[in-house]
Design brief:
The chain is mainly alpha-helical. It is built from 15 helices and eight strands. The strands form three sheets. A three-stranded antiparallel β-sheet has the order 1-2-3, covered by helices on one side.
Length: 388
C-alpha cells in the first residue's frame, strides 16, 4: 500500500553514507544504505519511491491493501466494492476510506462470511472503537461497511444489510481546549527557524486552516494601503502516498482577506529570504506563483509543489513532546487559540468569523462561549459599578 505521510528524505549516517527509508507498497518498512553525495541519495530515493508507487497502483486494482481475499467472505466483498468505488473518490476521501478498511474493517471482518455478521456484533464492535476514536470517525467506518455489505445484498446473497441497522454510539465530542498564550510562545521559540516555525506563527496569527496555508503562494501576500494582507484563495488536501491536491477553493468556497500584523509579516519576510537562499542553491528562482511553504522534493523544482500537510503536523508534535506539553494539543488547536484570544479581547463575532473562515458567527458562540471567563468577570464589574 502507498505510504500515507510526508515524503521521506535521505538520512546521513556517515561521511558520504546515506540511509533511505520508505514504506513499501505492501505496508512494510524498508531501508537501504548507499554511498555518494546527498544528491545521489535523493535521486536514488526518488527512483525507489516511483517504483513503489507503481507497485501500489497495481495493488489498488486488486484491493485497498493489495491482498487477495478468500471467496465468500467480507474480505472478498471489500475487494469488489473497492474496485467499483475507488476511482470515483477524491484523493482525501480515498485515503480516509482506505484507512478505515485496512486498519479497522479488514482486521476484524475479512474472514467472516457476510451472513454471519450480526447487528449485535457490529454494535459491540463500534462501542469498542470508542476507546481512542471519536464518534465521527466511527460513523465513517460504518458508512464504508454499509457500502461493502450492500454488494452482497444487491447480488441476493444477503437478504438484509446488518450494517444499515446497527447504530454507532454517540460517544462524547472532543472537548475544545485551546493552548494558552504561554504554550504557543514556547512552541514557536522551540521550533528551529525555517518553514515550520513560520507556518505556526502565521497559523496562530490568522486562524487559517492547515490546508489553506499549505496552498498559499507568495503573490497572496499584499502590501495594501491599510496594511499587509494575506489572501486565502484555496487549500490543499492529502492524497494517496505523499501526494497533495490543490482544491482550487477553500472549505467554505470563499476567498477571504486576512490582515497581517507587523510581527507575522516580519517572520514571513525573513522566511522569504531563507527560501530564496534555498532556491538559489538548487538553481531555481522564487516567483510570485511559488508556494510559500514548498515540498523539498528532488524530483520537482523547488517552490512548485506545496508542502505535505502532515510534514507540519509531525514537526509540531515533536516540538510539543520535547517541551512536555499535553499530548492532546494539536496543530489544529491553534485555530481554537486564535478564536478564543480574539473573543477574550472583545473582538466582535462577525470579524472573527470572517478572519477564520467560519460561515456563521453563531457557530463560534456555541463552540467557544465557555472560554472567555475574563470577559464575564469584566461584565460583572461593569454591572456592579452601575447598580451599586
Amino acid at each position: 500500500m502507498a505510504r500515507h505521510g510526508p515524503r521521506p528524505t535521505p538520512i546521513q549516517v556517515g561521511p558520504d553514507r546515506w540511509r533511505l527509508r520508505i514504506t513499501t507498497a505492501d505496508g512494510s518498512r524498508a531501508q537501504r544504505t548507499i554511498t555518494g553525495t546527498e544528491h545521489d541519495a535523493a535521486v536514488e530515493l526518488a527512483r525507489w519511491l516511483r517504483d513503489e508507487a507503481e507497485n501500489a497502483n497495481r495493488a489498488d486494482q486488486l484491493a485497498p491493501d493489495g491482498i487477495a481475499r478468500r471467496p465468500g467472505t467480507v474480505g472478498e466483498l471489500v475487494n469488489e466494492w473497492w474496485a467499483l468505488r475507488s476511482d470515483e473518490l477524491s484523493p482525501a476521501t480515498r485515503s480516509s476510506w482506505r484507512s478505515a478498511l485496512t486498519r479497522h474493517v479488514l482486521p476484524r471482518w475479512a474472514d467472516t462470511r457476510p451472513e454471519h455478521v450480526t447487528v449485535a456484533e457490529l454494535e459491540d464492535w463500534y462501542r469498542g472503537l470508542l476507546d481512542g476514536m471519536g464518534p465521527d470517525r466511527i460513523k465513517t467506518i460504518r458508512g464504508v461497511l454499509v457500502g461493502v455489505l450492500d454488494v452482497a445484498t444487491r447480488r441476493g446473497d444477503l437478504p438484509v444489510n446488518p450494517a444499515r441497522t446497527a447504530r454507532t454510539p454517540k460517544g462524547t465530542k472532543r472537548q475544545v481546549r485551546p493552548p494558552t498564550p504561554e504554550q504557543v510562545r514556547a512552541l514557536i521559540d522551540h521550533l528551529p527557524a525555517g518553514a515550520v516555525r513560520t507556518f505556526v506563527v502565521v497559523m496562530a496569527s490568522t486562524g487559517a486552516r492547515r490546508g489553506e496555508l499549505c496552498a498559499v503562494r507568495w503573490d497572496a501576500i499584499e502590501h495594501a494601503p491599510d496594511g499587509p494582507t494575506l489572501i486565502i484563495r484555496d487549500a490543499v488536501s492529502k492524497g494517496d502516498g505523499a501526494g497533495v491536491q490543490t482544491r482550487g477553493t477553500t472549505k467554505t468556497n470563499r476567498v477571504r482577506r486576512v490582515a497581517l500584523g507587523d510581527g507575522a509579516l516580519a517572520v514571513l519576510e525573513q522566511w522569504r529570504i531563507e527560501s530564496e537562499e534555498i532556491a538559489s542553491q538548487l538553481g531555481v528562482t522564487i516567483g510570485p506563483g511559488s508556494f510559500v511553504w514548498p515540498q523539498l522534493d528532488p524530483t520537482v523544482p523547488y517552490g512548485t509543489r506545496p508542502i505535505y500537510p502532515d510534514t507540519v503536523t509531525k514537526a509540531f508534535r515533536r516540538a510539543r513532546d520535547e517541551l512536555g506539553l499535553p499530548a492532546r494539543l494539536r496543530l489544529y488547536d491553534l485555530r481554537h487559540f486564535t478564536v478564543t484570544q480574539l473573543m477574550g479581547a472583545g473582538v466582535d463575532l462577525q470579524t472573527i468569523a470572517d478572519r477564520t473562515g467560519n460561515q456563521r458567527p453563531d457557530t463560534l458562540l456555541r463552540f467557544y462561549s465557555g472560554f472567555v471567563p475574563e470577559r464575564d468577570r469584566d461584565a460583572a464589574g461593569i454591572l456592579d459599578d452601575i447598580v451599586n
